[in-house]
Amino acid sequence: MGQQMEVPRRARLNRERVLEAAVTLADEVGIDALSMRRLAQELGVVPMALYKHVADKEDLLDGMVEAIIREIGSPHLDSGWRDAIRRQVLSARSALQRHRWARQAIESRSNPTPAVLEYQDSLAGIFLAGGFTPDLAHHVMHALGGRMWGFTQELFDGSANPKADAQPPAGPDAQAEMFAHMAALYPNIVTIATATPHDHDSVVGRGCDDQFEFEFALDLLLNGIEQLHQRGWTSAR
Fold first, then answer.
1. pLDDT digits 0-9 by tens, 135-152
2. Domain 55-154+208-231: which topology?
3. Beta-carbon neighbour count of residue 90 at 10 Å?
4. Rg (CA), the chain
5. CA 72, CA 119: separation in Å to the nearest integer?
């Protein structure tokens, strides 16, 4: 009797595997192209099989955001609140840079999930453990805003609208003409835009070192927060 060929067993489908596949697919095609049908094809199952593990597309996105939050990791309080917050925020930024769709997914969530609340609670806990009053910590969390997730609304920031069509670069003559036109109409913008070298010749911010600008603003914010904390600031004043 001949030996029967052993058919490889398909890994059992569960929520973790569904979310892992969804994150990988979104990394490849973007969040807008992600669908339950396409995800099912990637996993080699019928779409209805996914609904045993995720209720709908919104539940899928909630789970994907939670998966990104898990990549951020836990805060380290051994070096003080300021360094802990800075490292946590930059860790969040690294996670979002690995998954370019994550910002859009986070901003689209209408209700905070437990993972989102746990992350925000961990940041609030850093401030409270650092001796902040609940009042100051409240306002500081508002000041951080989206920066706690590693992103911020920059000048002419196209990352919040990934569907926007990128414009092809203009030729040298057209760029020179545009620059002269901008300099005549908006001299102050041109002055500050050309004060720092850029990778590109745009006067509206393209080519800026995004990581440098993010860390510059984060440190500026943390410095101000530290001064308020040292002064015993309260909103009652």
1. 999 999 999 999 999 998
2. Tetracycline Repressor; domain 2 (1.10.357)
3. 16
4. 23
5. 9
